[in-house]
Design goal:
Its main location: membrane. By secondary structure, this protein is mainly α. The protein has helices at residues 33-57, 67-99, 103-109, 186-203, 209-234, 239-264, 268-289, 302-338; strands spanning 154-156, 162-164. It contains 8 helices and 2 strands.
Length: 339
Amino acid sequence: MPPRRPTYPLAHSFRRKPRRVPLVLRFTKGSIHSIVFFPVLLHSLFTILIVYLDTRVLSSLGLPSTIIPSLSIVVGLMLVFRNSTSYDRFWTGRNCLTTIVLYAIKHNLRAEFNIPPASLEGAPAFDAHSTPVSRRPSYVDRPTPSSEDAGENGLVDGDGLHQPKNVYKSLLPDGLRGYEDEGLSLPLQLSVLVESYIRRGVDRGWFHAPLASQMTVQINSLVDAYGRMETIRSTPIPIAHLIHQKQVLALFTCVLPFAIVDDYVWWSVPIVAIVAFTLYGIEGIGQQLEDPFGYDKNDIKMDGIIEDTRREVLTLLGEWQKAQGDAEDEGAHLGGMFN
């Protein structure tokens, strides 16, 4: 097989590589089989009980098969609404991450707070190389990389991408304290600092007012994108919809054996298992996409996106520094010629 090498640019956020196992045979990474296993198992056991009672104990437990189409329409509509809503959240989050790509955004969306809080009395001054201060666990039920994946210089995510440890800390102002424990996120705190810098630049004549206005508009766009991502993270699907959807799925899959037992007998068991696998799998996909900012295989590759952006910025800065150095060397050469 060809070597699995990333292709630049966008090597980490978008990588096409040969699949070692066809997707139809994959049951672990990226799949939702662990979510649907128990519902499928329970409905299969229930179907076995119905078939046994229908064939060995009672004369007939069958229901008219005409009830299935009417129920399937309702179930299909509910699953379509759930999946379309969840994917819209995923797509919106990805677009917003294109607008604002910051280490602070990634850590804030995962509730990984890495700088000392201002309310902590006697806290040492902020050190860019210090160990992160942990004040509460990572965001909700998204697992963080295990300690086994930790290296000497950082973490390795599920795609094998090496993440520098606290690499964004060196970009923060010295002595910066966080206010996450008081309800203020670090991205908003940094936006206030940038806005104050723009105002100070206008007062000191570093740039004119129209340019300052354009930069302020950019700051507003960043804050708006961050607000959209925070809305996705903090606004789950209403619990009433989730309860009703689970109950409708369970009701439909429990009624299905009664409607097909007379026609298929013991074949009803695999048929119900396949139907349950399909329906609960679609529901499980919507559950995976509902919050796309974690570490799961189906989440947005924030680590890769931010790593690609970091490399692009470093490359641009390197070329700019090289051009500045060449200009200075040329100026020194010309000065020597005139002297």
